[in-house]
Amino acid sequence: MSKIITEINNYADTLDYIEKEECNTYRKHYKGFEYWILRPHYWENRYTVDYLKYFHLCGYVVIPKKSKYYIDDSKCSYNVECHGGLTYAGSREHFDIEFCIGFDCNHLDDAGSFNLSLYSLESNKSEREFYEGETYKTANYVEQECKSIINQLIRNLEDVILLGSILKHIRIFNKQTQLELAKNLNISRSYISEIESNNKTPTIEILQKYSDVFNIPLSTIILFAEEYGDKKGLRKKAKSLLAKTAVDFLDWICKEDEKK
């Protein structure tokens, strides 16, 4: 089994690898998601310049606006980690993509187009030195990052489902209907229904309103639904168990209260 190449640390090998092993466009699927790997400067400049001088790749995960994973059009709303962080949220009309989130491999440790600005577009220079620590991130690397984003979106939705259940139980325990709570929170009843049905992700601002109305610390609400630090350690497992136990306990309290 040949080794999967994810990074290359010199210019000549990079150009050779691109020409022999890579395409400028990939459309793939993973766990029900569609994702794309693109060489953006090729698509933007393919008629005017040599695209090999602008060779970095970008990765995009498609999130249809009707999908349960869609939050809004801001990349800041998606709690995912990836290479260099999310740098894009929007449509890719050329590929008929309504909405996607994405990242680029054009950062300080990447062999990207911004470094090539040292040379004019008319330059015939075919080689250059990579800076120390700088590497070209291959399509294999970008694919791994796209899959990681998808896995995080799935995991985050599981947290949202848990959060929706918690908010529903908080409302019931405090003997408020969805309509009454909607008035107290100054939002629509349908929005509350979407949250409690796990079809909408509540923003921090909405959670703060819950905190104010029910006099529950915001940190306590978030504790059950989001993980901070130690993402793969025992604290995460313990917190997940605690959250599940808390939901079951709230459910029991609400049912007992209804009997009275």
Brief summary of the model shown:
It contains nine helices and seven strands, in the order E-H-E-E-H-E-E-E-H-E-H-H-H-H-H-H. The chain has helices at residues 11-21, 40-45, 113-116, 139-173, 178-185, 189-196, 204-214, 218-223, 234-259; strands spanning 7-8, 25-30, 33-38, 58-62, 88-92, 97-104, 136-137.
Structure description:
By secondary structure, the protein is α+β, with helices and mostly antiparallel strands. The protein is built from 9 helices and 7 strands; from the N terminus they run βαββαβββαβαααααα. The chain has helices spanning 11-21, 40-45, 113-116, 139-173, 178-185, 189-196, 204-214, 218-223, 234-259; strands spanning 7-8, 25-30, 33-38, 58-62, 88-92, 97-104, 136-137. A 5-stranded antiparallel sheet has the order 2-3-4-6-5, with helices on one face. A hairpin with a 2-residue loop joins strand 2 (25-30) and strand 3 (33-38). The longest helix has 35 residues, at 139-173. The radius of gyration is 23 Å and the shape is elongated. It starts with 6 loop residues before the first strand and ends with a helix. The model is unreliable at 114-126 and 227-238 (pLDDT under 50).
Topology at a glance:
Elements lengths: L6 E2 L2 H11 L3 E6 L2 E6 L1 H6 L12 E5 L25 E5 L4 E8 L8 H4 L19 E2 L1 H35 L4 H8 L3 H8 L7 H11 L3 H6 L10 H26 L1
Whole-number count of domains: 2
- Tell me the number of strands: 7
Mean pLDDT across all residues, rounded? 79
Q: What string gives the helices and strands in order?
A: EHEEHEEEHEHHHHHH
Tally of helical segments: 9
How much helicity do the residues have? Answer: 40-55%
- Report strand %: 5-15%
Largest sheet: 5 strands, antiparallel
Tell me the overall shape. Answer: elongated
As laid out across the biggest beta sheet, the strand order is 2-3-4-6-5
Using the CA coordinates, give the radius of gyration.
Answer: 23 Å
Uncertain segments are 114-126, 227-238
Distance between the termini: 67 Å
Q: What structural category arises from helix and sheet content?
A: alpha+beta
